[in-house]
């Protein structure tokens, strides 16, 4: 099974919303592909400080999204640049089934996020070079997504903003919190119950 097929499976696991099970599953995939020692080396890295930094920056990104009536927050990290992260506030969004993530290329605001150099040092140049590099790559992606999901849990709900994440040039983008279907009035305008978002902008 190739790298991108694994990413598709990872997205399906993410949609389940059980992030402990998500990380456990991809730990086991890493063990199967490159051995317990390599997997444990990644598992032993403490991501609590990184998660806290992501959560703090995400709160600001969320505020910007509300102010701009955005439909998605896209967090992109760059494995070739110390895992440096950037939040993109996107006015448009397309569901995963649409198969088109070009919406993430159009942002009305950006917010710098944290880096994670220790992960960047473990990132192989070619994930498909061997089972070892594939397993390592997938588990690094899964742990980053898991940390982001924990940070996302600190956000209020009810705003109908998609929360997404990917490494630079990843396709498809991973949905952590998907956007709900929005009812459309007969005049073509979308409508969300105002009670769902009341007070969200006020901190």
Q: What is the N-to-C order of secondary-structure elements (H for helix, E for strand)?
A: HHHHEEEHHEEEEH
Share in helix:
40-55%
> What is the makeup of the main sheet?
5 strands, mixed
**What would the principal axes of the Cα set say about the shape?**
globular
Work out the count of structural domains.
1
Q: Quote the distance from N terminus to C terminus.
A: 46 Å
Strand line-up of the largest beta sheet: 3-2-1-4-5
How many strand units?
Answer: 7
Please state the structural category: alpha+beta
Explain what you see:
The protein is α+β, with helices and mostly antiparallel strands and about 200 residues long. It has one domain (about 5-180). Helix content is about 45%, strand content about 15%. The protein contains seven helices and seven strands; from the N terminus they run H-H-H-H-E-E-E-H-H-E-E-E-E-H. It has helices spanning about 5-15, 20-35, 35-45, 50-65, 115-120, 130-150, 195; strands at about 70-80, 85-90, 110, 160-165, 175, 185, 190. The strands form two sheets. It has a five-stranded mixed β-sheet. A two-stranded antiparallel sheet has the order 6-7. Strand 4 and strand 5 form a beta hairpin. Helix 2 (about 20-35) packs antiparallel against helix 3 and helix 4 (about 50-65) crosses helix 6. The longest helix is centred in the C-terminal third of the chain and has 22 residues, at about 130-150. It is globular, with a radius of gyration of 17 Å. The N and C termini lie far apart (about 45 Å).
